[in-house]
Design brief:
Strand order of the largest sheet: 3-2-1-4-5-6-7
Number of strands: 13
Strand content: 15-25%
Low-confidence stretches: none
Largest sheet: 7 strands, parallel
Structural class: alpha/beta
Mean pLDDT: 92
Helix content: 40-55%
Number of helices: 15
């Protein structure tokens, strides 16, 4: 029996691949002990216990970026967090630590080094985060989700994906999707999503151009997010929903996608061979632009700056593209070639290698 400590959290980009790995490890060996290290504030505080795993928490410790009181107290607080993880490793007889980035990972990486516990790191974003760049000094067992990721001693494994995506049979699922979303089976479908909170510019542009898109022969499934004031008006061919609990079915019915470029979103869209136009989130360190780079280079997707995603761009670029069935089909092929459905298995192979090597 192997005891695993999976460290990470904060956002869905860290929690989802962590849970996908945990589920696969549990399915392979129901006797395995799987613990998750996170914080009380992150998304993991809700999702991990709901999935049936024990969540062990430490203090949330952002890396200081300027000199202030928090920066001066950071070293002592970090050492205390490392000590807490060391005790967890010893008390739970942890055989391997697997980190996904985020606030809980950095202390876990240091604790694994100090206790000489095998360490595996998975980097979900094409542009590595601070915790994973620091942790990469401690291990040779590093898997990345994108081919262009620059992280020392790393190898491409792809993204650990939810089983609903890995096992999705798009053709057979379409009938259920059409019924669930109230769509016309005779029309091609444009899926539009800006993430759980939505994306104002993206939403406004699609809403402004929806009549032209529908006139071009596409129906739209538009997931607007919880912060949007857009609502379904019953306009023909334009379906607006706030949330989507069945993204697997939304992806099953998508003939083309317009989306933000979060790591998990890009990985799922590419793995299923859906051509896309990505509009990277314009705030932050620019990682979303890098996440889309593999698919764009392969010809499976377009990249559009948020500021450039306007009704005019939809009219002059997107609608003519949607009308070019040959090009859309070629984009679908290239998207699928760049995507991977076996990221979980590839990462588990790295984990097994780390355990075997001790």
């Amino acid at each position: 029996m192997t005891n695993y400590l999976l460290a990470g959290g904060g956002t869905a980009g860290h929690v989802n691949p962590l849970l996908a790995t945990a589920d696969a490890l549990r399915a392979r060996d129901p006797q395995a002990q799987i613990y998750v290290l996170g914080t009380k504030e992150g998304l993991e505080a809700r999702l991990v216990p709901a999935r049936g795993y024990e969540l062990l928490t430490i203090e949330r410790l952002p890396f200081p970026r300027r000199i202030n009181g928090a920066a001066l107290s950071f070293p002592a607080r970090f050492r205390r967090a490392v000590g807490e993880v060391e005790r967890i490793i010893r008390d739970r007889n942890i055989d391997v630590v697997i980190g996904y980035g985020g606030y809980a990972s950095a202390p876990a990486y240091r604790a694994a080094k100090r206790t000489k516990t095998p360490l595996v790191i998975h980097e979900a974003n094409a542009k590595p985060g601070l915790a994973n760049k620091a942790g990469a000094r401690y291990t040779d067992h590093i898997g990345v989700a994108f081919h262009g990721t620059r992280l020392r001693k790393s190898s491409y494994v792809g993204m650990p994906l939810r089983s609903e995506i890995v096992n999705l049979e798009r053709d057979s699922a379409r009938a259920e999707a059409y019924e669930l979303f109230g769509l016309d089976p005779k029309l091609r479908t444009l899926l539009v999503t800006g993430g759980s909170t939505g994306a104002r510019k993206l939403n406004q542009t699609i809403a402004s151009a929806q009549e032209q898109i529908v006139a071009a022969g596409f129906q739209i499934l538009h997931i607007v997010g919880g912060r949007s004031d857009l609502r379904d008006t019953g306009a023909p061919g334009y379906r607006v929903i706030e949330y989507c609990d069945r993204m697997d079915l939304a992806l099953a019915v998508a003939d083309f996608a317009v989306s933000r470029a979060g790591a998990a979103t890009v990985s799922e869209i590419s793995a299923l061979g859906i051509p896309a136009a990505y509009i990277p989130y314009p705030v932050g360190n620019g990682e979303q632009r890098f996440n889309a780079a593999d698919a764009v280079r392969a010809g499976g997707a377009l990249l559009v700056n948020d500021a450039d995603f306007t009704p005019e761009w939809v009219r002059d670029t997107l609608i003519p593209l949607l009308g070019d069935r040959t090009r859309v089909q070629d984009m679908a092929v290239q998207s699928r070639l760049m995507g991977s459905l076996d990221g979980t298995e590839r990462l588990i192979a790295v984990i097994d290698e780390a355990v075997a090597q001790g």
